User: Fold this.
Amino acid sequence: MIRPCTATDVPEIFTIVNDAAQAYQGVIPADRWHEPYMPLEELQAEIAAGVKFWGYEEDRRLVGVMGMQPVKDVTLIRHAYVRTENRNHGAGGKLLRHLLERIEGKILVGTWQAAGWAVRFYQKHGFQMVGTEEKNRLLSAYWQIPSRQIETSSVLVCNTPSTLSVKG
Assistant:
């Protein structure tokens, strides 16, 4: 079951994000890794900044989360994580499809360049990688991240019929 997350889910979202993010350790640049990967205060700040989380439940247990955040003239897919033990069973794809059905206009996702599995996941679901110059422009325009993270990230844009008619 997919449902909107509420304030009572924040501790579980925190657990899921930091469990799933262990996949980044030793993969992303060492200077971008920290423990926990996303401190609780940062998660709360992301929610306060407009990230709306949706959760995927199995047997009444939240096993995956994914956020969407309207920023200016686009919607960002943010913080997509599935518990390590629940990966590769379709939860992420179901969450992404659920969000895509609720978004109109241009959709962007940013992820680490070194996280090839994440890039492939989004490409499998109709997103296309943008070039380096466009990536730098988009990350600077729509995300509030350090320049080092811009250097080491990728941006993908949605290529679904609902967004193809959007210009820009």
